[in-house]
Design goal:
It is built from 17 helices and two strands. It is mainly alpha-helical. GO terms for molecular function: calmodulin binding.
Amino acid sequence: MAEARSGSLEYTPTWVVAFICFIIVLLSLLAERGLHHLGKCLKRRQQDALFEALQKLKEELMLLGFISLMLTVSQAAIRHICVPPALVNNMFPCKKPLEKHDAPKSSHSVIINARHLLSTGESPDHCAAKGQVPLVSVEALHQLHIFIFVLAVFHVIFCASTMVLGGARIQQWKHWEDWFKKRPSQKGTTRRGHAHAHAHELFSANYEFFEMHAGGFWRRSVVISWLRSFFKQFYGSVTKSEYIALRQAFIMSHCRTNPSFDFHKYMLRTLEIDFKKVVSISWYLWLFVVVFLLLNVGGWNTYFWLSFLPLILLLMVGAKLEYIISSLALDVSEKRNRAEEAVITPSDELFWFHRPGIVLQLIHFILFQNSFEIAFFFWILFTYGIHSCIMEKLGFLIPRLVMGVLVQVLCSYSTLPLYALVTQMGSKFKKGIFDNVVQSTLEGWLEDTRNKGESTSEAHRIEMQSTTPESYNVQVMESENP
């Protein structure tokens, strides 16, 4: 008991306490000031979408701080919870070695148990007097606390790196946008010659697009089209002819009066807006973490089998997006056969459940699941070591890491750029079609309209209450008896 008291704050040198507090406060202030200056930088560059994503990141950090506070404050109460031994004698992450009941405990195990009890602040007979055992130790709560923090950090890093790499891939399409929007500036015959050459190049690009996706009978087969879409996501996921064709379809559907609309800038703006949703950790993602921690039982190899989930979902999403491009080309081909207007028609019916937003939700889950896999690996590595039983065998470990890297690279350079382009083929345009100034003006106008509508509804409700049958009868009686 004296040893436990000597390790408390009462018998800790004041310079140690002051020094530790100074370091913690300094690091916290540096992080807060860094995020503040980053926000000011984004504001100066008018990156409102990324600024909102930064605000969302701050909310996630505040949630982590609250979780940390709850674990710290409640650990004193949790460590005194005692349960029957049968409740905590199964479903371990590691298989428990068989114990020989008649063999005396070694001095090493006795020392470990004594240290464990001292670290948790429990007396040896706290739960033993009741014939029970502690529900969880303070050490386990501390390790769980660290895991939640590591998971959130890895999720933010993975999402940010995916958006940066995907945005860099989309930036490579900028010269296609510039080529499409270029107009001959010369006069006379030279100008007509340039216009003719530009029109010929545009016709060639469109012909290449339809020939690639709808040329020949075998390309029109649903099975062949799905197989081709599946493999195409690994090489040249978006070509110049596809970009030009889908850009024309968007312009004709939503910006017919503005053929010089900067479609490329619009895609980047919508991607920044979507980043705000992707960087957050929704409730169902936290629920997934809870379910995984429940099923991470030794011998089930849950960690290994779960690592296939993000890769399978990512391949499904990539194949679906590629198939939508092929479906648009096949639809135009069928219109030509029916002697109808052969134009690409964007539609929500091309997407799962007629909802293009489902693709973003799947990408959100894929990135979180992949970051969860990597975060769990590094947490186990630095907490228990490479030879921990939770790590399982090397034959299970290497494939998990390879799939994690593959998912990150494929999502950054193929799936995310595909999503940014193909989801513009929905029936409606996205919020990013307006610049930041117009968005702010529209949001303010909608807010004013909503407030005015609520005021009008309230006045109408009061007026209706004053003209109820009862009040109407009173008014009639007063008029008849002046």
